[in-house]
Write a structure and sequence with these properties.
This protein is mainly α and 122 residues long. Helices cover 80% and strands 0% of the residues. It is built from seven helices and no strands. It is globular and about 45 Å long.
């Protein structure tokens, strides 16, 4: 996507996040979808969709969105931490341990990721 389109896509994620925070989930989702229509490789849009899905107890959707986010943002420890939490909540502890491990590799002092890894590593 050209720079102007990518910039607008990022702006729509920010607007969506603001809407999600004030409880306007449908409007937030509309902005996230618009962001992805402009730039399907916007990892932050995928992370925001995952957060919205998590807020709505849609762990399955959250995991799918986070798998996209971690592919697009392979150096983002927060994406892997979120994925670990979602996988753990869904009962996929081995996969959760892998995600937490990656989060700790990217951010060695992240206590939440370390605790998650220790809890799920089997």
């Amino acid at each position: 996507a050209p720079d102007a389109v990518r910039s607008e896509s990022r702006r729509r994620v920010g607007t969506g996040d603001d809407l999600r925070i004030v409880g306007r989930a449908e409007d937030a989702l509309s902005d996230y979808r618009a962001a992805l229509t402009m730039d399907k490789c916007n990892g932050y849009a995928w992370m925001s969709i995952a957060q919205l899905a998590s807020d709505q107890a849609r762990t399955d959707l959250s995991i799918r969105a986070l798998r996209n986010a971690t592919r697009l943002l392979p150096a983002h420890p927060g994406a892997f931490l979120m994925l670990g939490k979602a996988l753990e909540a869904f009962g996929q502890t081995r996969s959760a341990a892998d995600a937490y491990k990656r989060a700790t590799e990217l951010s060695p002092s992240n206590a939440e990721a370390i605790e998650g890894y220790m809890r799920t590593r089997g």
